[in-house]
Structure formats: C-alpha cells, structure tokens
Design goal:
With 186 residues, the chain is an all-alpha fold. The protein folds into 2 domains: 2-44, Arc Repressor Mutant, subunit A (Orthogonal Bundle), CATH 1.10.10; 57-185, Tetracycline Repressor, domain 2 (Orthogonal Bundle). It is built from 10 helices and no strands. The longest helix has 24 residues, at 130-153. The chain is elongated. The relative contact order is 0.11.
Length: 186
C-alpha cells in the first residue's frame, strides 16, 4: 500500500502540473486531490520541489542505466525530446514558473555527465589534456541546453525528429574538433 500511496501522490502531482504552473501547485492541492492528509504527503516528500526533482532524476537514471555510454547521449537526447514533446502542458507549466531553473539544472547535470563521457571516449587515444576536454564538453553542453531552453520556451514547434536531425549535423563535427584538439596538444 505504501508504494501505491507514493505513486498516487506523484501521479496527482503530474496531473496538476498539466493543469497549472508549478508555482501555483501547493501541498494542499495535492493532498485534497489525493484524499490524504498532509502528514502522509510529508512522509514521502519534504515539499513539491522534491517531487519535481524526482521527475528529472527518474528520467536521468533510466537513460544512464539502460544504455552504453557511446549511445547514451543520442538515446538520452531523443528520449528527452520525445518526453517533452509528448507532455507540452507540463513543460509549458514548468517554463511559466519561477522554478524553471530546476529544469535547466537537471538538463545541465544530465547533459554534463552523459556528454563528458562521450567526449572522453572519442578522445581516448588522443593526447588531449583534461582542461581542453572539459572545454569541448562544456561548449556542446551550453549549445544543447540553450537550444533546448529556446525550444521549450517557444512551444516546441519543431518535432523531436527535426531537432534531433539538426543536432546530428552539429555533432557530426565533434570528431573533427577532437582531432584538432589532439594535434594542438602535441
């Protein structure tokens, strides 16, 4: 029953997030919609920010645990685009809130982990110092997050496949960047 109660609370939160901006959702809204008392809510979550963080954490864990690192960034990116595109009201309500920074923080954290591994694998046999690898990873992270942020805020007009295709063109040049960095380090 305990797991079921937590799932009900979480599903109710997602349902409310489809209907209103994150900043407008209160613990009271959640407990009333679930028909539980506040103590039950606080048994599972300290606040609604923890619930928002759980959404992002669940997505991230699914990506990193189910795919090898060489495919992880592309698969993770596609999953992120599809999930966002299929939940436009939730994304819109997160973007419309002052708590949008939680989404951006999640994006930076997961992107940094996934993309850093990818860049390091590409540079595995090349004599490139750590600082240069971090710069390359950071450059691509900011390009990704900036583009995603704009896509979210403008209502996700392009389909995920179109955006992924555009990113594929840009990312096809990363091997050239790494080769150039390797030559510059010699």
């Amino acid at each position: 029953m305990a797991t079921n109660t937590k799932e009900i609370i979480f599903a109710t939160f997602l349902d409310l997030l489809e209907k209103m901006p994150f900043d407008k959702i209160t613990v009271r809204d959640i407990v009333e919609a679930c028909g539980i008392n506040r103590n039950t809510f606080y048994y599972y979550y300290s606040d609604i920010y923890e619930m928002l963080e759980e959404i992002f954490k669940n997505e991230y864990l699914e990506i990193v645990s189910n795919h090898s690192s060489d495919l992880r960034w592309m698969i993770g990116f596609k999953k992120l685009l599809d999930t966002a595109y299929n939940n436009p009201k939730i994304i819109s309500n997160i973007c419309a809130s002052r708590s949008y920074e939680y989404l951006e923080t999640y994006l930076f954290k997961s992107c940094r982990t996934i993309f850093s591994e990818f860049v390091k694998e590409l540079a595995n046999s090349k004599p490139i110092d750590e600082k240069t690898l971090e710069f390359i990873s950071s450059f691509y992270e900011y390009a990704i997050i900036g583009t995603l942020s704009e896509w979210f805020r403008t209502g996700m007009r392009e389909k995920p496949e179109e955006l992924l295709k555009q990113f594929s063109v840009v990312f096809s040049g990363i091997t050239t960047v790494i080769k150039m960095a390797g030559k510059a380090s010699q």
